[in-house]
Specification:
Blueprint lengths: L11 H33 L15 H4 L61 E3 L5 E3 L12 H12 L5 H11 L5 H7 L6 H16 L2 E11 L2 E9 L4 E6 L4 H8 L6 E2 L2 H9 L4 H9 L4 E2 L2 H10 L11 H16 L7 E4 L9 E4 L1 H9 L6 H26 L3 H15 L6 H12 L1 H4 L1 H4 L8 H16 L6 H19 L4 H8 L11 H11 L1
Parallel strand pairs: 3-8, 8-9
Antiparallel strand pairs: 1-2, 3-4, 4-5, 6-7
Helix pairs in contact: 1-13, 3-20, 6-19, 6-21, 7-11, 8-11, 12-13, 13-14
């Protein structure tokens, strides 16, 4: 074995060459060990190592964490102080004469009472002197023939328990409730629009106050056709919207947060220049006397008046102009002020101040198909360099400095300027280097996350619902599903009980008061 070199006497270039050489040796040793294990398993007649399907998470975030969660495994906090006592009983003991009383030994029990309850309301009827009939009004919270507690029980089981309507009917029938699938479907609705309005208010509050949001989308079925469900949220709120398209225009319309107007303002014109709309067409919009349009019909009439051409086979000027007017509406309503949008590099999300997910970037390297030892060694070497860089980005977020920022920018260039001799990997590194501004947005905005794990975790509930349900049939049913899912996720992020929230909104007896979620999101964002 060669003697260890004097590390203190080596230059930075020599140290880097030494590190790369050692990384290559480690990768080679790992392959040797894997080959030996497979040979031993073959000789013993055992099965080889399982084949991991491509596309699974690479574990980069876990590998770059030094201390993990910091909590010792197997230790849990005391639960007794969190338990609300509703009753206290004294259990008597049979004792011999002459015994002395030494107090009590407490034993806590948790139980759940679930039973049907039928109630007949005998409403007084009166005939007035002028011939009119007056009937006593229903108590607050009573709408239809099912009480508020039953309705919130159905909503909680459907949206949090992920039950289907047939299973809900079977469950309620087992408990003794006389109910049909049609009636359960009505209980899951939002006839007065209370919950859908609050979900929209949560989105508006989040987009007005958030310093960053992360976004993601997944497939969703509606009216027997494939659509897309988009998630928008951060650590304080979540919102979902199901549409038929996943275009950039569709994403911008979701970011309007319920507003339907179109606005031509300086922000809209700047957007059109970034999207390379020809300057003469921009001038037509800028010089027109009208700049605010209440709905899509008014906007389309204005486009016809200014002579905006239509070329659907290329970058359609009408579509680009509409994107700009929607972006103008977003800024006019005070949404997304200096807010960073973190995404997985899907094209429709590249609007405003944009940042990319590092986990998705590394996953591109992880999923490359390799066929030779040289390609595998190059792939592993680049993955280790990216993991190392990612770990230092996490440390930078905790204590950002100007000097460290400059060092990380230079190091990014050195890593992604590598030429490994593996052509596919080299092209991928060039593509990632072209995304330098979005990948290194965290250097200027250290408060933003380095990944979109939050969006992926939130949208998993929609994926589960898609797998167990055939989808929605009506637009109202689709909007209700998205709204209740958003409200349940927002309650969890705010540390609220979704059960208590439903009880307050449905006026269930003895339900605790829950403030407006939009106000809580605003307060939480201001305190962050």
């Amino acid at each position: 074995m060669a003697p260890a070199p004097d590390l203190d006497g080596l230059s930075n270039a020599d140290l880097k060459r030494l590190v790369l050489e050692l990384l290559g040796r480690v990768a080679e040793l790992e392959r040797t060990v894997a080959a030996q294990r497979e040979e031993i398993a073959r000789l013993k007649g055992l099965k080889g190592r399982p084949t991991i399907k491509p596309g699974r998470p690479s574990g980069m975030d876990a590998h770059t964490s030094r201390s993990g969660s910091g909590r010792k495994p197997g230790r849990r906090g005391p639960k007794a102080p969190q338990l609300t006592l509703h009753e206290e009983r004294i259990v008597r003991a049979a004792v011999p004469a002459g015994s002395r009383f030494k107090g009590y030994e407490d034993f806590l029990i948790q139980d759940l009472i679930v039973r049907p309850q039928g109630l007949r309301l005998r409403r007084e009827r009166w005939r007035t002197p002028d011939g009119r009939t007056l009937v006593a009004p229903l108590p607050a919270g009573i709408r239809g023939h099912f009480g508020p507690d039953l309705r919130r029980y159905v909503l909680a089981l459907y949206h949090q328990g992920q039950l289907t309507i047939p299973r809900l009917v079977a469950h309620l029938t087992m408990l003794g409730v006389l109910i049909s699938k049609r009636q359960v479907g009505r209980l899951l609705g939002d006839a007065d629009g209370l919950f859908r309005a609050e979900a929209t208010a949560v989105l508006q509050a989040g987009l007005r106050t958030a310093r960053w949001i992360s976004v993601d989308d997944t497939g969703a079925r509606h009216q027997g056709r494939n659509g897309v469900c988009t998630h928008i949220g951060n650590d304080h709120f979540a919102w979902f919207g199901t549409t038929a398209s996943k275009s950039r225009l569709n994403f911008l319309e979701l970011l309007r947060a319920g507003h339907a107007d179109y606005v031509i303002n300086p922000e809209a014109l700047a957007y059109l220049r970034r999207r390379a709309l020809p300057e003469p067409l921009i001038a037509r919009l800028a010089q027109a006397p009208q700049t605010h349009f209440s709905d899509a019909a008014a906007w389309q009439r204005h486009l016809a008046q200014v002579g905006m051409p239509s070329r659907p086979d290329t970058l359609d000027p009408i579509r680009l102009a509409t994107e700009g007017a929607v972006w103008g509406s977003i800024t006019a309503h005070g949404l997304l002020p200096h807010t960073v949008i973190v995404s997985d590099d899907a094209g429709q999300f590249a609007v405003g101040e944009h940042a990319l997910c590092w986990v998705h970037a590394e996953r591109l390297i992880h999923q490359l198909d390799t066929f030779t030892d040289h390609q595998r060694a190059a792939q592993q070497r680049m993955r280790l360099l990216v993991w190392w860089f990612y770990r230092d980005l996490k440390l930078y977020r905790q204590a950002p400095t100007r000097r460290r920022r400059a060092e990380l920018r230079g190091r990014f260039d050195r890593i992604f300027a590598h030429r490994t001799g593996f052509a596919t990997l080299d092209r991928l590194l060039g593509r990632l280097r072209a995304n330098k501004a979005e990948l290194l947005r965290v250097l200027d905005r250290p408060e933003i996350p380095l990944h979109t794990n939050g969006s992926e975790n939130d949208i998993r509930a929609q994926v589960i619902r898609r797998k167990i349900s055939a989808g929605t049939r009506s637009d109202t049913g689709r909007d209700c599903r998205d709204a209740f899912l958003a409200l349940s996720k927002t309650c969890r992020k705010l540390g609220l009980s979704f059960w208590a929230y439903l009880g307050d909104r449905l006026r269930a007896p003895d339900a605790p008061a829950v403030p407006a979620l939009a106000d809580l999101v605003t307060a939480r964002s201001a305190a962050a």
